[in-house]
Amino acid sequence: MRTCPCGVPRRSGGHNCRACHAAYLRAWRAVHGQTDEQRRRSNARSYLHVYISRGKIQRGPCAVCGEANVLARIRDYARPLEVTWLCKRHHRPPMLRRL
User: Fold this and answer.
1) Contact indicator for 60, 85 with CB cutoff of 8 Å
2) Rounded to the nearest 5 degrees, what angle is found at the Cα of 38, between the Cα atoms of 25 and 68?
3) Which residues contact 37 (CB under 8 A, 6 or more apart)?
4) How far is CA 67 from the centre of its chain?
5) Relative to the CA of 42, which of 30, 52, 77, 98 has its CA 20 to 30 Å away?
6) What would the pLDDT profile of 14-67 be if each residue is shown by its tens digit?
């Protein structure tokens, strides 16, 4: 089993142990912080996922085609619980969709 430079076994698929990886991420985030918009979007997604995991919000079919495998589209990040459920094909911006 491979080890981290600190001598502890590596986490699966990683180059460092969990403690060294966490320390690296803390240092990286201190230098490369999120913008206010990135933080607002991240918080909105986290808030929505908590409601989904607690069963307070149920996933619905795609609003366009009715497919069951859907993603949440949050239009206004100030209201993260107002979502539109879209399949992967319709969730992508029109310019990135295949014809």
Assistant:
1) yes
2) 100
3) none
4) 21
5) 98
6) 888 999 999 999 999 999 989 999 999 999 999 999 999 999 999 999 999 999
